């Protein structure tokens, strides 16, 4: 184990330099390097005690340097996905802000958002986590399976159930909004009829 730690420490500087060159941010590179070192170390401890590590392969560590660099690469990819999701959301929000929606539209959007948040909060924790990783962060079923240490079939079942739960809530909300809109239109029609009759 000491040999492994010494080898990891020996390659840590190389990893950090490589990440600093690739990412062009020494602080971010240091964070990724530290997280990579930690994951490989935890994996090695799991192999030593006979436990299966959560996200890394089951075999012994043949090349600690290669594993360290591979884990760092995967962490960079995961973080890039998260950043892309956040940027897309920000862009969507800017588009919404520039279109100047009516107060009715804003109220409906708030109502929808509140219902969606309530629906997500009402899901069992594992189902909610799978749904958010898939829909919000863009993970594949295989990646979710590895990250949560469950089978791909379990991921698929959680996705189907979460989608059904959310679609029920959205269908109910849609019918409520349509009824509200229909009532509002009928009231507008009645008011215009009354004013025409009075003229």
Brief rundown of the structure:
The protein has 199 residues and is an all-alpha fold. It has seven helices and no strands. Helices cover 84% and strands 0% of the residues.
> Sheet bearing the most strands, described?
none
Helix content, binned percent: over 70%
Anisotropy-based shape: elongated
Give the N-to-C terminal Cα separation. Answer: 94 Å
Average pLDDT number: 80
Total count of strands: 0
**Unreliable residue stretches:** 53-59
Element string (H = helix, E = strand): HHHHHHH
The radius of gyration over CA amounts to 26 Å
Structural class: mainly alpha
Q: How much β-strand is present in the residues? A: under 5%
Number of helices, where a helix is a run of at least 4 consecutive DSSP H or I residues: 7
Keywords:
about 200 residues, 7 helices
Written account of the structure:
The protein is mainly α. The protein contains seven helices and no strands. Helix 1 runs antiparallel to helix 2 (26-49). The radius of gyration is 26 Å and the shape is elongated.
Question: How is the secondary structure organized here?
Answer:
Elements: H1 2-23, H2 26-49, H3 64-98, H4 103-122, H5 125-135, H6 141-148, H7 152-198
Helix pairs in contact: 1-2, 1-3, 2-3, 4-7, 5-7, 6-7
């Amino acid at each position: 184990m000491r040999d492994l730690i010494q080898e990891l420490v020996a390659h840590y500087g190389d990893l950090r330099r490589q990440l600093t060159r690739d990412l062009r941010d020494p602080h971010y590179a240091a964070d990724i390097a530290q997280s990579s070192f930690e994951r490989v170390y935890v994996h090695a401890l799991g192999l030593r005690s006979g436990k299966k590590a959560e996200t890394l392969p089951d075999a012994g560590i043949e090349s600690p340097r290669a594993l360290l660099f591979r884990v760092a690469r995967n962490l960079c990819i995961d973080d890039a996905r998260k950043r892309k999701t956040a940027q897309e959301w920000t862009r969507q929000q800017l588009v919404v802000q520039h279109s100047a929606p009516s107060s009715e539209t804003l109220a409906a959007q708030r109502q929808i958002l509140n219902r969606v948040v309530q629906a997500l909060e009402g899901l069992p924790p594992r189902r909610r986590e799978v749904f958010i990783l898939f829909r919000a962060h863009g993970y594949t079923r295989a990646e979710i399976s590895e990250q949560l240490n469950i089978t791909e079939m379990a991921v698929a079942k959680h996705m189907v159930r979460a989608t059904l739960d959310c679609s029920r809530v959205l269908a109910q909300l849609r019918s409520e909004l349509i009824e509200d809109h229909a009532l509002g239109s009928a009231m507008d029609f009645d008011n215009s009829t009354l004013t025409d009759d009075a003229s």
